[in-house]
Every structure is written in C-alpha cells, then in structure tokens.
Amino acid sequence: MLPLLNRVLVIGIGGGGDIVSTLPVKAFLESRGSDVEIGSVVWERFHRDPFPGPRKLKTLNNVKILGDCLGITSGGTRIRDTGVEIIPSQVAELTGNEVLLVDINRPSELKEELRDYVRKREFDAVVGVDAGGDALTTGREKGLRSPLADAIMVSVLEKIPSYTCVTGMGSDGELKREEIERNMTLLAEWGDFAGCHEMPEKIMGLMETVVEKVDTEASRIPLMGARGYFGKVMIRDGIEVDVSLISSLYFYFTTRGVYRLNALARRVDGSATIEEACSRLNEMGLKTELDLERELYERKSGEK
C-alpha cells in the first residue's frame, strides 16, 4: 500500500486540467503528514490555445525557469503570442500554491532533469495524477484518442520513485469503465495496487471554486460524484460519460506496474522529441492528440 511519505511532488500528467485533480491528492497526502508540492504538464487544449502541441517554457511569460524542461509559476503565466493564461497558472492563483511547470517537448531530457529535481528537492516520491484513466491503457482500447502526454509521463516517471493515481474513471470519454477496471485488476494481480481513497471533504469547497473558474471537464467529474450526482453527463464533442460515487475515488498504482501495463509508455520511452514519440505511436496505428491538433490547425489555417 501507499507508504507514509515525508515529501511528495504531485504532477498532473495529462496536461490541461489534470492539475485540478492534484488538489485532492495533495489534501489526502497532507492529512497523512506529507509536505506536498504540485505540478503540471503544460499543454492547453486546442480550443484554448490554437497551436498544435504543448508549449515550450520559453514561449511563456512570467515563469521562473529552472532548466530546459522545468519552471515555476506563481500565477500570471501567459502564452506570449496569444495572451492566454495557462491552467496551471490559474490554479496557482486560486490556491496560493506555486506550481511546477513540466515541458514534455523533449522527453529524454525531461527524464534526466526531473530526476535531478526530485533528488535535489529531496522528494521521497512523485505521484502522477491522471483524470480519466488513459494512463492505464494497454494500447488496445478502441476509444483511446489522447495517449501521448500520459505515455510520455509514465515513461519519464518509471525510473523515479513514483506512483500513478487515476481518478474520474472514464471521465474523459476514452477508455470505458470496464476496460479501466480490468486493467486495474491486472495491476492488483501483479502486486502494483497501492491503495484508494475518497475525495477529502475539506478540499471540496476549494474544488468547487476551481472548477467554476478553470476550463476542465475530466477533473470536474470526480467532484460531481463526490457531491452525489448519479447519471450521464455530456462532455466535449458530444460524448456521454457515466458519473457516480465511483468517479470520486482516487486509485494508486506503482508507476513500475503501469509502465509494464502500458505498451505505449514503453514504446515512447527514450524519445528525444515529442515528434519522435508521436511517430512511434503512429507506427503502432494510433492517432494522438498531437495529430488531432495538427489537423485542426491546418484546417483552420486553410479557412483563412
């Protein structure tokens, strides 16, 4: 099970709104006596930032640069050419927490830089948080549409003492609940299940404030489940997802086990660039969120 940890870095690994789902994890770990910092992959979805792929830190204003792949925001961090404030910056402002910004454009370099950061800051472990559950893919699930960020981050965290936390089972409308449950059960069979908890009561008020002000769908579903909603909810692109109390649970697994399960994480491991990682998944017959955003960008450019 999840051991007691003195210092923990909790990172939203899917980009965009996954930073919101780090807040209940932070509250839970703090209730056990841990000192917790939060972080997030920097990747705004296309409807907020019509640029294909994750932004590099050097394209942002108001960032404390720590290296080529890591930075810190205390709020007010905007994309230089559009003026859009990134979601991790909004969360920093709303919560009063500094947020570590994670640039996944160069995965191999990120792996080394994050490992050094964890060692220098004396973190006992990292928890990668995924809202929806795509990190628990085997690569064969037909509904998978945005596997790239999760795959990169699982491969980055695999060699660092870490856990992968999944919440809002199926809340992004990709993997089905029964697929996630099957893969969770397989991880438990391997001995890689590390525990589960509900959304802490003390964080719900803050969560309600954050989800009202921040553009997130998958991270909103766990709060709905915790507040007693039961039924279906329509999310982006007209996709229906199930919401219940189960949506509000936070499941932990060793990242070692998740890496073993996730063929896509193994496939992208060692990629020098995000383009190389994307190409490796394309070779497996998969289309990624980067491919989709490139298509949308070209279509939008053609309409001008």
Would you mind describing this structure in some detail?
The protein has one domain (7-303): 3-Layer(aba) Sandwich (Rossmann fold), CATH 3.40.50. The protein contains 11 helices and 13 strands. The chain has a 9-stranded mixed sheet, with helices on both faces. It has a two-stranded antiparallel ribbon with strand order 3-6. It has helices at residues 22-31, 87-95, 107-120, 148-157, 177-189, 204-213, 221-226, 255-261, 263-268, 274-282, 289-303; strands at residues 7-12, 35-41, 60-61, 64-65, 70-73, 78-79, 99-102, 125-131, 162-167, 193-197, 231-235, 239-243, 250-254. The termini are far apart. It is globular, with a radius of gyration of 18 Å. A hairpin with a 3-residue loop joins β11 (231-235) and β12. With 304 residues, it is of the alpha/beta class. It is 36% helix and 20% strand.
Please give the largest β-sheet: 9 strands, mixed
> Rounded to an integer, what's the Rg over CA atoms?
18 Å
Number of extended strands: 13
Helix content: 25-40%
Structural class: alpha/beta
Order of helices and strands: EHEEEEEHEHEHEHEHHEEEHHHH
In total, the number of domains comes to 1
The number of helical runs is 11
Strand content: 15-25%
> Which overall shape is indicated by the principal axes computed on the Cα atoms?
globular
Level-2 CATH architecture? 3-Layer(aba) Sandwich
